[in-house]
Amino acid sequence: YVSGRADANEALHRPMAADLGCVIVTVEYRLAPETRFPGAVEDCYAALAWTLTHAAELGVDPERVGVMGESAGGGLAAGLALLVRDRGEHRLAFQHLIYPMIDDRTCTRPDPHPMTGEFIWTAHNNRFGWAALLGHEPGIEGVLPYAAAARAESLAGLPPTFIATGALDLFLEENLEYARRLTREGIPTEVHVYPGAFHAFQVMRGSRVAQAAERDSRAALARFLNG
């Protein structure tokens, strides 16, 4: 939520688009704390609306448009899916969430997971990221689900979902709980937990666990896109 650029994953997205025969639209959303919630998710909503408006010239099938993101991007994708559902102006075919950042209350849990969050994205970083996005300390009442998707009272009506996370990722439990709630609503949900994997482990592309995660992710995207 506080750093990054839309072109940061271009080297990954271009071959992915070619392999899957799809169009990838990456959003240069505004960053916190300069722009707080709901700036970033509204930027994503505007990008989705633009994509659907221009679907014909982009060569996009509007019935197969989904959202995807990693980490904070996964949190934005999940929040966007809820926003799309609730506004009722558009429809998504899927949401593809890679270790998504979806619950600010993880920062304030009285019994944090003893094995997660030691590497890359720590509890300290998490509190800073959420406070920057929200403009106040995380974990208090009144946080909207479009900021923290796990806050949604109901997950009914969301599109088919893919969730991948690591066994050592700080977001492990919030991701698993979200997957559990989705299945309780009857949402087709595929979830993967990769042993020994910490947050953003997929940047270690030569590792076996990253290669396994890449295969699973691509296979799920192919199924979503090809129906």
What keyword list fits this structure?
single chain, 227 residues, alpha/beta, Rossmann fold, four-stranded parallel beta sheet, 7 helices, 4 strands, 40% helix, 9% strand
What does this molecule look like?
β1 (67-70), α4 and β2 (95-98) form a beta-alpha-beta unit. Strands 1-2-3-4 form a 4-stranded parallel β-sheet, sandwiched between helices. It has helices at 10-20, 39-53, 55-58, 72-87, 123-134, 172-184, 208-226, and strands at 67-70, 95-98, 161-166, 189-194. The mean pLDDT is 97. It has 227 residues and is an alpha/beta fold. The protein has a single domain, classed as Alpha/Beta hydrolase fold, catalytic domain (Rossmann fold), CATH 3.40.50. Helix content is 40%, strand content 9%.
Task: Give the helix/strand layout.
Blueprint lengths: L9 H11 L18 H15 L1 H4 L8 E4 L1 H16 L7 E4 L24 H12 L26 E6 L5 H13 L4 E6 L13 H19 L1
Parallel strand pairs: 1-2, 2-3, 3-4
Helix pairs in contact: 2-4
The unreliable regions are: none
Average the pLDDT over all residues and give the rounded result. Answer: 97
Q: How is the biggest beta sheet arranged? A: 4 strands, parallel
**Cα-atom radius of gyration:** 17 Å
- Helix and strand element order: HHHEHEHEHEH
Sequence of strands across the biggest β-sheet? 1-2-3-4
CATH classification, class level: Alpha Beta
Shape: globular
How many domain units? 1
Structural class: alpha/beta
Q: Helical region count?
A: 7
The strand count comes to: 4
CATH topology title: Rossmann fold
The assembly state of the depicted protein chains is single chain
Strand content: 5-15%
CATH superfamily grouping = Alpha/Beta hydrolase fold, catalytic domain
Task: Give the N-to-C terminal Cα separation.
Answer: 32 Å
Helix content: 25-40%
State the CATH architecture. 3-Layer(aba) Sandwich
